[in-house]
Amino acid sequence: MSKNEFLKELRDYLTGQVSAPEVEDSIRYYDKYISDQASGGMSERAVVESLGDPRIIGRSIVDAAARKKTEGSAASRGYENTSASGTSSRKDRSSHGKVTPDKLKLYGTIAIILLVVIVILVAITRIVAFFLPLIIVVFLATYIIKHWGDRR
C-alpha cells in the first residue's frame, strides 16, 4: 500500500467519527511520520507496512478522542455522588486522592486525641509505679497487724 492510499483510507475511516480538526491533525501526523521515516532510509511502502491497517489506527484515534472527550467533560462539570437518601453531593475529580484541608483538620484532631490518650496512660502508669511499693508496704503492714493482732 502506498503512502497516499494509507492516508486516504485513514481519512475515510476518521471522517464523521471525529472532528474535522482531529482528522486533519491525524493525517498531518502520519504524513509527516511516513515522510520522516522514508527520509531516514526506509521505503514508504515499508513504513506503511510497519504501521499496519489504517482502519485499526483510525479506531484507536476514535477511541482516544472519545476517552478524551468523556474525561474532559467529567472533569469540567465534576460528578454527582448520590446517597441512599437521594441527596447528592458534588465532588471535583481533581481533588480525588489528595489531602484536602478538611481531611488535614480531621487527621490533626485524631493525632491530638491519640497523643492526649497516650500521655494520660503514661501518667497513670508512672503514678501507679511510683506508689506501688508504698501500697504493697501498707497492705502488708495491715495484714501483719491484723494477723498478729488476732493471735494475741
TrEMBL record:
Pfam families: HAAS. Residues 89-99 have a biased composition (Basic and acidic residues). The keyword Transmembrane applies. Coiled coil: none annotated. Keywords: Membrane, Transmembrane, Transmembrane helix. Residues 79-88 have a biased composition (Polar residues). It comes from the Bacteria. Residues 67-99 are annotated as: Disordered. The keyword GTP-binding does not apply. The chain crosses the membrane at residues 104-124, 130-149. This is DUF1700 domain-containing protein. The lineage of its organism: Bacteria, Bacillati, Bacillota, Clostridia, Lachnospirales.
